[in-house]
Write a sequence for this structure.
């Protein structure tokens, strides 16, 4: 385990790039904070993705340049956005009707833990005593697909992919794909299948840093970007 | 569109000051506050609320993530000790913290965390005369504990009760004197649903015009939901 702790992992940008490949052309997508926010920078050429933000905007533009900030044009994380053609605005109930009603195709979220059956625990670290749930719980339940983008292990080197979540749950059985700095893992609600590993890593090494049993796909290979 | 200061004819629901527009606020009142994590808050009304000196307030709002010099928002109101409880999906920034975190940690502020979409739908139900709503959000989590769960179309839903408050403090771009409101961009956020869900609704606006100054097709919050208006500074 210790020998693996120092081994080189993929940077956040590469994780985001790998996630971006999963977004279908024309999809409505909601990106959480952290690595997920980076995903919009890596959508493959020729593909159009429309971003939904629970701050009440559809078809979000890129982050605004310094000096061009508009207080009335922000994303869910409070970042200022550029004004682009085709935007629309709505209130908070409408924003969540879009999510809960299954109109958002994919959400990409960070997480503290994901379980073998695709349970998501991303809103609260128990030791903090309180958490920012925001819209995560509605996204986990309502979006048609939930992709998790996160580091494979936490700050202490503990696995974030676990047999059962020990942190407060966000949603049950909602995750269908996990992309980490070590691996791409599919969840079918029953178990986890290792599909891709970071360059230089073996499936066995990834398994060592994973708290749940991985089924190694017969066609497991390196990260496909 | 004329501003009130330019047109003495403009009165209607327009109050001369925040304090006047908050008449009737009382100790222990529940108050909806629009805005997005510290942006687009009704600052003049929040200052006015601080000025009334009422205490034991329950604030229902997005949260207090952003604090900036010179701004008076939810964080600053909470810092003054007038708030007993906050109902919020995102009470304070996990890294930067602030008065909400400090008072909560010292046991002087109660926090009730509510998933954002659940809060939105509970307020919408409150404003629409619906007693409660079954929502799929939170099934199998601590937010469903102690609540009725029922299946619809093969999927579990949690019964959430409607939510209403004594006052709503809103922030809009423009109004007419009747109280019809329009917003700008993401400044709309919680305003339209909060406008429906309080006994007394007060909107802080940049501009007020005569009836007819807003295209009826563009009105987002209808006058029936708004009791009082005050011009922003």
């Amino acid at each position: 385990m210790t020998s693996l702790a120092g081994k080189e992992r993929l940077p956040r940008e590469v994780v985001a790039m790998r996630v971006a490949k999963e977004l279908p052309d024309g999809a409505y997508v909601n990106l959480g904070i952290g690595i997920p926010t980076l995903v919009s920078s890596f959508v493959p050429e020729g593909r159009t993705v429309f971003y939904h933000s629970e701050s009440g905007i559809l078809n979000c533009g890129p982050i605004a340049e310094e000096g061009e900030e508009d207080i009335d044009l922000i994303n869910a994380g409070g970042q200022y956005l550029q004004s682009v053609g085709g935007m629309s605005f709505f209130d908070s109930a409408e924003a969540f009707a879009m999510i809960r009603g299954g109109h958002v195709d994919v959400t990409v979220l960070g997480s503290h833990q994901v379980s073998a059956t695709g349970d998501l625990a991303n809103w609260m670290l128990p030791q903090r005593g309180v958490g920012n749930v925001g819209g995560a719980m509605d996204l986990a339940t309502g979006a048609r697909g939930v992709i998790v983008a996160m580091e494979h292990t936490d700050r202490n080197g503990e696995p974030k992919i676990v047999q059962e979540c020990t942190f407060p749950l966000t949603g049950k059985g909602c995750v269908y794909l996990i992309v980490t700095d070590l691996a791409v893992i599919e969840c079918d609600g029953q178990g986890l299948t290792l599909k891709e590993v970071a360059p230089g890593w073996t499936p066995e090494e990834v398994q060592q840093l994973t708290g749940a049993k991985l089924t190694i796909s017969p066609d497991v290979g390196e990260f496909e970007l | 569109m004329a501003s009130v200061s330019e047109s003495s004819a403009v009165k209607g629901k327009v109050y001369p000051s925040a304090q006047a527009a908050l008449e009737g606020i009382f100790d222990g009142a529940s108050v909806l506050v629009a805005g997005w994590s510290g942006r687009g808050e009704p600052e003049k009304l929040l200052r006015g609320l601080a000025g009334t000196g009422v205490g034991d307030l329950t604030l229902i709002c997005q949260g207090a993530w952003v604090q900036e010099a010179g701004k008076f928002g939810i964080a600053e109101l909470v810092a003054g000790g007038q708030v007993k409880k906050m109902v919020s999906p995102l009470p304070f920034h996990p890294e930067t913290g602030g008065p909400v975190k400090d008072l909560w940690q010292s046991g002087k502020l109660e926090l009730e965390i509510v998933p954002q979409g659940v809060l939105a739908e509970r307020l919408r139900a409150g404003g629409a005369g619906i007693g409660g709503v079954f929502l799929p959000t939170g099934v199998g989590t601590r937010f469903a504990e102690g609540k009725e769960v029922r299946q619809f179309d093969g999927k579990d839903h949690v019964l959430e009760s409607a939510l209403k408050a004594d006052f709503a403090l809103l922030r809009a771009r423009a109004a007419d004197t009747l109280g019809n409101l329009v917003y700008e961009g993401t400044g709309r956020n919680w305003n339209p649903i909060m406008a429906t869900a309080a006994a007394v609704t007060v909107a802080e606006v940049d501009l007020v015009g005569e009836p007819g100054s807003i295209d009826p097709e563009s009105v987002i919050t209808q006058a029936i939901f708004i009791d009082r208006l005050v011009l922003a500074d």
In short: Residues 110 and 183 of chain B are 31 Å apart (CA to CA). Residues 116-128 of chain B form the longest helix (13 residues).
